[in-house]
Amino acid sequence: MVDVAAARLVTTFAAPLDRKRDAADAPYLVRWPGGEPGDGRRLLVQRGDAELVVVAPDAAGVPNAAGVPDAADPENAPADPVNAPTVRFPAPWPRNFGTFAVAPDAALAVFAGVHALRAVDPTGAVRWEVAHGCWEGSCRTLHAGFEEYATDSRHRYPDSGSAVFSADGTLVWAHIRGPVAASGPDPEALDEWLVVDAADGRVLGRADSETVAAGSDHVPHPDPARMGLSVGEGQDGVPLLWGRWDGEKLTVERFCNDERILTAVSPSGDRFLTVTHYEETLGVHRVDDGSVLAELDTEHAVPRHPGADPDDEDADETLWDYECGFLDEETVVVGTSERDEEYGEARHWLVGTAGEEMRVTAQLSYPFPVSGAPTALGDGTWYTVSESGDALHVWSR
């Protein structure tokens, strides 16, 4: 029998953009690694087709991990972060043409597009741009602008890379489709990993990532000179790369035999968390060499969903969500929601990682139904997004 732990609602944020009216993605909350709980390193972010909206909730005293009374009726009255500073970045292209990153101080946004990295300030002015190969798989053109392929049906569903700011905001780490324009066209170039000066866009370091990505995600480390990268290659695998920048050279290590997805780095920066490609196993690894410190399979750790038909043998197989992370140095929050939703409510779990084994310590109990996977913030809190995507709920134990 698994213990039950009550989740306490810390605060609820209303999405700054209306998803239907503004053609927007669901909002999310980002907190940069390092620092202490309640240190104001959170940003509420939402991408629409026309703009990227960034809200700094802690600047207005909005509740964080330090703790406040629960909202009385969070589902019916999402609490806007009143008077919180809001920054709006005009988007250079629609949201389905790439990804984006926001600086910790919300003064700059980098749009990782199909043909270029473009850094934009809140006025829409381009601070810098790094052009690169096209993310549409069959295209070998070094495009000069989005307009060249905006209406081309072949570019409607491109692959994509990703970018992220380092914890101190001085560097941008970017996974791009090679080659960088300054190198000239090279039809044999694979994806490249860049370290870019966030102030002026100078490419400081670069390495062939030796991947052929459909998509990728960066996982920041508390040390600005370190970074994790998880690359999706479809059924071909999920390369996990670990980068180090010594001020002169970018060195890259490849961990986990292309079988595990990197999801989070622990608050200390000593360990990282993975889930296997087919979602059956969690793993905690040593950052220095990628070695596995502990693992946990869903089999025997997570019971079948109580809403499943007793005669449904498929319900015996539970799977971890791809979204999981550290609440603190020794506790992970993870869901089985993707599989659970076939049978009823999503379930979320606390997993202890101390010592040489991982174990489920409790199932989380919420005061109202939640949807999707939990996203840990590394300061003792996590969040869930409402099913409609119009509100984001922050929780603590």
Overview of this structure, please?
This protein has 397 residues and is mainly β. It is 1% helix and 40% strand. It has 1 helix and 29 strands. The chain is globular. It starts with a strand and ends with a strand.
Q: Would you spell out the secondary-structure blueprint of this structure?
A:
Layout lengths: L3 E3 L1 E7 L13 E4 L10 E6 L3 E5 L30 E5 L7 E5 L6 E5 L2 E5 L5 E6 L30 E4 L5 E7 L13 E7 L5 E6 L6 E6 L5 E7 L7 E6 L4 E6 L4 E6 L5 E6 L4 E6 L5 E6 L26 E5 L2 E5 L1 H4 L7 E5 L6 E7 L9 E2 L4 E5 L5 E6 L1
Helix content: under 10%
Total E-strand runs: 29
CA-based shape: globular
Cα-based radius of gyration, to the nearest Å = 21 Å
Q: Which residue ranges are poorly predicted, with pLDDT under 50 across at least 5 consecutive positions? A: 66-79
Q: State the end-to-end distance.
A: 20 Å
- Binned strand content: 35-45%
Taken in chain order, the helices and strands follow as: EEEEEEEEEEEEEEEEEEEEEEEEHEEEEE
Category by helix and strand content = mainly beta
Counting DSSP H or I runs of 4 or more residues, the number of helices is 1
Mean pLDDT: 91
Oligomer: single chain
Order of strands across the widest beta sheet? 1-26-25-24-23
- Main pleated-sheet profile: 5 strands, mixed
